[in-house]
Amino acid sequence: MATQLKIKVNEREWTVAAAPETPLLYVLSNELQLHGPRFGCGLAQCGSCSVLVNGVETRSCVTPVASVQGKAVTTLEGLPAWYAAQKKLPQAPALHPVQQALIDEQAVQCGYCFNGMIIKASELLSKTPQPSEMQIRLAMNGHLCRCGTYPRILKAIQRASKAMTGVAR
Ligand code: FES
Ligand code: FES
Question: Fewest CB within 10 angstroms: 16, 35, 40, 108, which?
């Protein structure tokens, strides 16, 4: 049964009417019109629906909306502002450095997986600013790309790390 739930998404408070067990992804897409997170498998297997919940990559397709009450949800749309807040920048850049690096490496093909790739890579670099190649591979392991762009994604994350730290990997 639908009930009134308060959730915080991209630094804004929302009140939504939804059954508590409704997947967060459905609320983001259908109620808040945030279409960065995408429905792929619906089973927490592909990563296309990922968001950050308190800075941790989370599969929104299997996350009940009620479980994120009192937490901070960040979607792709809010990622540059999330980054600016982390880095204490005076204003948000147009793109998170991971997004810019993916463009610079021309990594995107159909783009369906890239919401999750960007969210996961952003989480990784927030915790491990200079990851090794193996750390990147391990972090990105649960994100599937049927276009096979993995080598370019790896290079893009290394590029973003360099841009964010000034240190080449
Ligand atoms: S749609 Fe959520 S992990 Fe695939
Ligand atoms: S770019 Fe097509 S699924 Fe990854």
Answer: 35
